[in-house]
Each structure stands twice: as structure tokens, then as C-alpha cells.
């Protein structure tokens, strides 16, 4: 930039992977905040279907909708890490992607209630084709990674044609065609990055994933707070103990994710596993919020499900979250008791729905797991300080 002024257009060259002090930009934060609208819609409709005892339909619709949300967010995030020029053309193209996210969010209720994924598909395609223009800009401005950029542009375009064709298929093909096209979408980065990885910034990616985790956790807090507030306003049963347990669960989920600094693997297979694995992290967090909302409804005698199902709506996503964090963040870097504690806690959480006061038991188990991580970390700190003291 000249004199602090931003140009309307500049060649899209690759950013330096070793760039110091690389942080999320205001545009990226705005992008995340707009995406949380879609996350909130998905979690709200998941809660509604679960409370109405439509568990199979709820889970299937939620996983499909959340894939579209997460995949569009993830692709922009990694692209921006490598090629953010912050010129006017880049900003406008990103705002088009945000508009696509809002279109997608508007289509979430119909996807749940009527199985109509048309609006979601249109929003998704808008987001993805806007990103194609970015990849073409990158191919023109970065000869060193042109092969990867062109592969991205071609691969994403072909898959979007597939998503549009899917709207014409019979309803019986809906799930099968979704799985095929989702797999095709997932294969695009794996194939595109093979001629030479784009220059995404590991610390920047770690920060971006952490920020989105915070936003999804904030959605859980909001959903739970609204549910409890509604109960309090109507003068129904005392919800304070349940509210306390819900807060403990959310606080523990935050603590366990941010217990240690994140390191994103830089080799292609490991980075794909790390990046793709966060689909389960984000989806599980939002689903915990929906489950806690169902628990509040059950406490108020509004949910049309039994206590065991209610328990599973919280226990299953909590266990998925624990196991995913264990695989992505604990196993690669830690040893000893904490490595065992995560899967054991996940198994115990899965057993809680058959016991009384499921939400309270989950809160207690997560508190114990947090205590284990603190003890292990303090032990490591003491062991590292001994040689220095000597």
C-alpha cells in the first residue's frame, strides 16, 4: 500500500508462509460472524427435530447442512491464508461469498422441515463460484503455484455443476448423491495441492480455527441462555441447577480446546486430517448447544422425548468432541495420563444417558478431565524447570 491507502486491485501473489505477526483481518472476522447465522439456524432446527423425537431425520439433515456451512468456511479460510491481498476486488468477492452464506442460512429451515435443499444449494454454489474467481486471480498472479490454483478452480467448478444437477434427481437419491458430491468436494484440495502446496500460514490457520471455535461456542451459550430465560420468564421449574451445569459444560469444552497452543501440521496428509477433522469439532459443539436446549425443554415438560434420548442429545456430541480433540490435538503432542483420560471420559459420557441427571454427570466428568489436563501441564512445567534451576 502507498501512504496507507488500499488499491482497488493488485496482482494476487502468494503470501510468505513465514510472515511474522500474521493475524486475522477484520474482513475474516466479519466473514465468521456472518457464517454464525447459518450455524445458529442449523442448531435451532436440530433442537426442534430432536425435541419432537425425529432423531434420525434431525441427525441426517444436520450433518448435511453443517457440511455445506463448514466446507465453504474452511475453503475461504485456507485460501485467504495464502492469497489475501485486501484490495477492493478481493473484498467485494468475499462479500459475495458472505451473501451466499446468508442465502444458505435462509434455506436451512426448509431443508429440515421439507427436505428441500434448493436454497441451501444456491447459496453454497454462490459461495463456491465466488471463490473460483479468487483461484483464477491467484493462478494469474502466482506462476509458482499456478498448477495448484488452476486445479482448485476447475475442481470446484465441476463439483458445483454436480450440486446443481443433484437438485433434479429423485428424492430417493438425495442422501447417496450428497455423499458422492461431498466426497468429490473433499478430494479437490487433496488433488489440487499435490503439484505444490499453496503458501497458507500455519499460525494464521490455527488462529482462524480457534476464532471459529469461539464463535460456535458463543452460539451454544446464546442458545442455552435463551432456553433458560424462556423457562424463567414463564415461571416454570427452577432451572438454575441446569443452567449451572450447562455453563460448566461449555466452559470445559472451551478449556479443553484451548488448553495448549495449536500447531497445524505442514505436511499435506496431516494438514488435511487436521483441517477436515474440525468438521466434527464445530458440528459437535453446535450440537451440544441443541442438546442442552432439548434438556431445558424436557425439564419444562415441552420435549416429546424420554430422558434417555434427551441424555443422548448432549452425551453423543460431547463424546464426539472429546474424541476428535483427542485425535487432532492430544495424541500428536502429549503423553501419559492425559492421553488415556480423553477417550475414557468420552466412554463414560456415553454411559450417562442411562443414569439419572445426565447433564450434571457430564458436567462433572468434563470438570474432572479439565483437572487432569491442569495437573499434567503443571507436572510438565515443574519437570522442565528443574534443569534450569540446577
UniProtKB/TrEMBL annotation:
UniProt keywords, alphabetically: Membrane, Transmembrane, Transmembrane helix
Residues annotated as transmembrane: 62-82, 89-108, 209-228, 240-258, 279-296, 302-328, 335-351, 357-376
One Pfam match: LtrA
Name of this protein: Low temperature requirement protein LtrA
Organism annotation: Micromonospora echinaurantiaca
Amino acid at each position: 500500500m502507498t501512504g496507507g491507502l488500499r488499491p482497488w486491485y493488485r496482482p494476487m501473489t502468494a503470501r510468505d508462509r513465514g510472515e511474522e505477526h500474521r493475524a486475522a483481518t477484520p474482513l475474516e472476522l466479519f466473514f465468521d460472524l456472518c457464517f454464525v447465522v447459518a450455524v445458529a439456524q442449523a442448531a435451532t432446527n436440530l433442537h426442534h427435530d430432536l425435541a419432537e423425537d425425529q432423531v434420525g431425520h434431525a441427525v441426517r439433515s444436520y450433518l448435511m447442512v453443517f457440511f455445506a456451512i463448514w466446507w465453504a468456511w474452511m475453503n475461504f479460510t485456507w485460501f485467504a491464508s495464502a492469497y489475501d491481498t485486501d484490495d477492493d476486488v478481493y473484498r467485494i468477492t468475499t462479500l459475495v461469498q458472505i451473501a451466499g452464506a446468508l442465502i444458505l442460512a435462509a434455506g436451512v429451515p426448509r431443508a429440515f422441515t421439507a427436505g428441500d435443499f434448493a436454497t441451501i444449494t444456491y447459496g453454497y454454489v454462490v459461495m463456491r463460484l465466488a471463490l473460483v474467481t479468487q483461484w483464477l486471480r491467484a493462478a494469474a498472479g502466482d506462476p509458482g503455484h499456478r498448477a495448484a490454483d488452476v486445479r482448485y478452480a476447475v475442481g470446484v467448478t465441476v463439483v458445483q455443476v454436480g450440486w446443481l444437477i443433484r437438485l433434479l434427481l429423485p428424492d430417493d437419491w438425495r442422501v447417496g448423491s450428497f455423499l458422492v458430491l461431498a466426497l468429490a468436494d473433499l478430494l479437490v484440495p487433496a488433488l489440487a495441492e499435490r503439484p505444490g502446496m499453496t503458501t497458507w500460514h500455519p499460525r494464521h490457520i490455527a488462529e482462524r480455527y480457534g476464532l471459529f471455535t469461539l464463535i460456535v461456542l458463543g452460539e451454544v451459550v446464546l442458545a442455552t441462555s435463551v432456553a433458560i430465560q424462556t423457562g424463567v420468564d414463564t415461571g416454570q421449574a427452577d432451572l438454575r441447577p441446569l443452567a449451572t451445569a450447562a455453563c460448566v459444560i461449555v466452559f470445559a469444552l472451551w478449556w479443553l480446546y484451548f488448553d495448549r497452543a495449536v500447531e497445524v501440521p505442514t505436511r499435506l496428509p496431516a494438514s488435511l486430517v487436521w483441517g477436515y477433522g474440525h468438521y466434527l469439532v464445530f458440528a459437535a459443539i453446535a450440537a451440544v448447544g441443541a442438546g442442552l436446549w432439548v434438556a431445558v425443554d424436557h425439564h419444562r415438560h415441552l420435549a416429546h422425548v424420554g430422558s434417555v434420548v434427551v441424555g443422548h442429545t448432549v452425551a453423543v456430541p460431547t463424546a464426539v468432541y472429546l474424541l476428535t480433540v483427542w485425535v487432532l490435538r492430544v495424541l500428536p503432542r502429549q503423553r501419559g495420563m492425559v492421553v488415556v483420560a480423553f477417550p475414557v471420559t468420552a466412554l463414560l459420557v456415553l454411559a450417562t444417558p442411562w443414569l439419572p441427571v445426565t447433564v450434571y454427570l457430564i458436567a462433572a466428568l468434563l470438570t474432572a478431565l479439565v483437572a487432569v489436563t491442569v495437573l499434567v501441564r503443571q507436572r510438565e512445567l515443574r519437570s522442565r524447570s528443574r534443569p534450569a534451576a540446577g
